[in-house]
From TrEMBL:
Protein name: Membrane protein
Keyword terms: Membrane, Transmembrane, Transmembrane helix
Origin superkingdom: Bacteria
Membrane topology recorded in Swiss-Prot or TrEMBL: Multi-pass membrane protein
Family: Belongs to the drug/metabolite transporter (DMT) superfamily. 10 TMS drug/metabolite exporter (DME) (TC 2.A.7.3) family.
Organism: Aliiroseovarius zhejiangensis
Transmembrane segments: 45-62, 74-94, 100-122, 131-148, 185-206, 212-231, 251-284
Amino acid sequence: MAHQLTLTTPVKAAGLMVLAGASFAVVNTALQGATMKLGASAPSVTFWQYLIALGFYLPWVFRHRAAVMKTGQVWLHVLRVALAAGGVQLWTLGLAYVPIWQAIALILLSPFFVTLGAGLFLHETVSIHRWGAVVLGIIGGAVILEPWSDRFELVALLPVGAAALWAASSVVTKFLTRADGPETVTIYLLVLLSPINAALALGSGFSLPMGAIWLVVGAGLLTALAQHVLVRAYSLADAAFLQPFDHLKLVFNVVLGFVVFGFLPTGSMWLGTAIILAASFYLLEQERRQPV
């Protein structure tokens, strides 16, 4: 029985990570529609997105408030949320200027930061297979992005900043799940993000164009689902193992960006995507072969 659990848990964790990536891809499409196409302010969109996500959880939180809100790691929750808030703001602002596929390619730098942090601060074992998968993923992202070409713009560095902050937040998340459940970690994120996002949105008056309202509502509901699934994945597997599967969100974002907005990546996108997919599935196969 123990042998079977060892084999199936990495697969389950990887599947949850892929599901989170697909959900976030839909969220990104909605956010880009609201900001780039409809002119909504990025801070206002972010405020309503996460407030709606919190509202989705409130009935459940009220019923289980004693268990969910109990934690001995309050300051770590605050640190995680501060890092996440910075990442969210830079990400939403970046989506107002660059195509989804380009922004996601830059986010592929995040696993490098996560793997480094997991090894240094969480003392996780970062095997040669994990390092190899992360390096291949970054190479695939570079092939897609072509930062050496004339098409590259400095504004695309906004997602790079988001990648660094989210990576740090991911490392803290993994540490939190050692003592707190996925529900507790998710709820603290949503509760603490709301006042931070509200302060940042003061300048825009919290207003949204009429056409953007339903996009933001949908993004908020999907954000609640994606955050919960993401934390659940971290509770089942090491942060360094999970990050290469986060690369797969590139595929979802590219497809949605093309279908919805007509953003057509350069031809090198297909080669880069093939490298990323190969790295992710190689890592999963190596983990399945590990002895008990």
